[in-house]
Amino acid sequence: MKAVFIAEKPSVAAEFAKALKLKTTRRDGYMESENAIVTWCVGHLVTMSYPECYDEKYKKWNLRDLPFIPQGQWKYEVIPGVKKQFNIVKEILNRDDVDTIYVCTDSGREGEYIYRLVAQEAGVKGKKEKRVWIDSQTEEEILRGIKEAKDLKEYDNLSDAAYLRAKEDYLMGINFSRVLTLRYGPSVASYLREKRAVLSVGRVMTCVLGMIVRREREIRQFVKMPFYRVLSSMVCGESTIEGEFRAVKGSAYFQSPKLYKENGFSHKEDAKELIEKLSNPKPVQAVIEKLESKKENKNPPLLYNLAELQNDCSKRYKISPDETLKIVQELYEKKLVTYPRTDARVLSTAVAKEIHKNIHGLSGFANVQSYAAEVLEGTAWKKIASTRYVNDKQITDHYAIIPTGQGLLALRSVSALSVKVYELIARRFLSIFYPPAIYQKTTLVSKVQQESFFSSFRLLLSEGYLKVAGMPEENKKKDDTEDVKCDENLLQALQKCKKGDILPVKGFSIKEGETSPPKRYTSGSMILAMENAGQLIEDEELRAQIKGSGIGTSATRAEILKKLQANKYIALNKKTQVLTPTHLGEMIFDVVNNSIRSLLNPELTASWEKGLTYVAEGTITSEEYMEKLEGFIKR
Q1: Backbone angles phi, psi at 390, to 5 degrees
Q2: Residue 228: pLDDT above 90?
Q3: Is 622 exposed, middle or buried, given 0-12, 13-18 or 19+ CB atoms closer than 10 A?
Q4: What span, in angstroms and rounded, lies between the C-alpha atoms of 523 and 314?
Q5: How many Cα atoms occupy the beta-carbon half-sphere of 252 within 13 Å?
Q6: CA 441/CA 426 separation, integer angstroms
Q7: Which of 79, 85, 69, 105 is nearest to 30 (CA)?
Q8: pLDDT tens by residue, 374-393
Q9: pTM score of the predicted model
Q10: What are phi and psi of 444, to 5 degrees?
Q11: What does the H/E/C string look like for 19-36?
């Protein structure tokens, strides 16, 4: 009897045949050896049938026929363009000399769905079905996945969630697009001077469009306000330091209506008035009221998941999330990195035990060679399991994206940009084995008469992980006080100072600023906002802490942005990766906002995604979820 190994695409099937060291004969659509057959899908082979397959009347869009919810058995059909491959696979799966089927499609919800639809439409019965679940395409991982393959039934909850996700997108897309097109399509078409307009809406797509439109309108309505900060210039040793006025308790301006914020005035005249008050009597002196110095540790960030990688690539290389996914998918298929469509930013304890192999492999990659050698000489990698970078509870399907340490020769056959992305992943990975970066932070509060001036200084004492990861970009708002980078001389001069010391004041100046509107989303920041249910949290540490349930999944978010572009609802600036709504996109937003407003609610959209996760975990049943979904559609 023979075993069948069915993969999602031909290239993956070839890797399985290679890992199993099968002497195969190449046939049309499959490879066969003495005791095994390796075959493949080409992505999806089966799809859901259109409403007209249930009843011819649905071919014509009509309000009285809505909502459309199939009763009883749902209909599926083979996709015409891949019918030949489906028939080959169907025949193989049902062969009398086949007793075991190893399901080797992508290890995720969508990969599960691809096989289940094929098995359903091919009428597979009486075969032993095993699920191969792997984190990378290295030979060892493929062989481990086959050896530890579980009964397919153990993945039934995941399969249920996959079917429900498809049904949900189908029902919301068909019903809401039809009802809005029938009601508002003619008005939109006439405004756009088109013959007809189809209003395409969807569970995730419309919610994301709403976020982009709302942000654009906030920017349009924003009125810039000038503000004026007063700065003191003081002598400290050989250096000159700046202090910023703040109207704290005890100040003549405490909670004054003249202030824009405690560190700035709304009108220049008031700032000038303060300077005049403080400039006499001469010589002007500042008394040190408070001087604090402490060391601050900055830990290496958590590892990359797909959203974090897409955001970083959007910022650094100005590439879209879709391009990043294509690159990292190619790196995965060439065995260079682990599974890309992951939400986790940590490693599993099992991987942590073997982590030296990944590090060792990077010794062959010139760009990080010296860092890999340095890590192996140290002991941090031996203790990694006891750190925040390893946590089985934070992993659902797959751990973070890391280099496998294998397949480095394949880097010759990928683009220069792909090599850059690989290096980014490798540097992030190696940085977790380095100590924190250590800064010396000094805060000085000085008083001129009764007014307080604040100064803050920061000096990098030890670069730690920054040696491999590179210096982080500073995220500063224009109206915020910032740490001044100081040198050794200034730090030494500050260390000699104490409370009560007098610093001569050279003078005062006014620094004019203006309030900034919210920033437009970039393709990368939108992916992060989707991951956090519509909240864009700039701070990476905070993002990791509050991570809850997102809009869409790591596998689908890039595709959603691509679809919004294809529908001409949003525009993407390729140079800056900034997203803006089109005129049509804003019209669609207004239509949905006045009819099915809940589709624009990120929390609600995220709760649907959370529901699918509960189904996959077995916390709620498919029936419970479907009941809620049908209720929402009918409402």
Answers
A1: -130, 120
A2: yes
A3: middle
A4: 7
A5: 12
A6: 30
A7: 85
A8: 999 999 999 999 999 999 99
A9: 0.90
A10: -125, 130
A11: HCCCCCEEECCEEECCCE
pLDDT at 38 over 50: yes
- Exactly one of 170, 339, 399, 439 is catalytic; name it: 339
Q: What does the pLDDT average to over 476-502?
A: 75
User: What gap in Å lies between CA 461 and CA 287, rounded to an integer?
Assistant: 28
Task: Give CA separation, 171 vs 69, 74, 146, 543, 558, in Å.
Answer: 7, 12, 37, 32, 22
**Residues whose CB falls within 8 Å of the CB of residue 497, separated by 6 or more in sequence, listed in order:** 236, 288, 291, 444, 503
| Annotation says 339 is catalytic | yes
C-alpha span between 10 and 258 (Å, rounded): 70
Structure token pair of residue 414: 């990928």
What single letter denotes the amino acid at residue 203?
Answer: R
Tokens of 511: 């620094």
User: For residue 446, which amino acid is it?
Assistant: S
Helix or strand run (H / E) with residue 86: helix 83-93
Q: How far apart are CA 375 and CA 361, in angstroms?
A: 12
Using CA atoms, how far apart are residues 173 and 205, in angstroms rounded to an integer?
10
Q: How far is the C-alpha of 425 from the C-alpha of 432, rounded, in Å? A: 12
What amino acid occupies position 51?
P
* CB 302 within 8 Å of CB 389: yes
Q: Please tell me the predicted confidence (pLDDT) of residue 476.
A: 44
pLDDT class of 537 with cuts at 50, 70, 90 = low
Q: Tell me how far apart the alpha carbons of residues 34 and 150 are, in angstroms, rounded to a whole number.
A: 24
Tokens in use for 453? 């001036």
Beta strand 484-485 with 451-462: parallel, antiparallel or unpaired? parallel
Dump the DSSP string for 162-207: HHHHHHHHHHHHHHHHHHHHHHHHHHHHHHHT-S-------TTHHH
Which tokens belong to 325? 């996914």
AA identity, residue 549: S
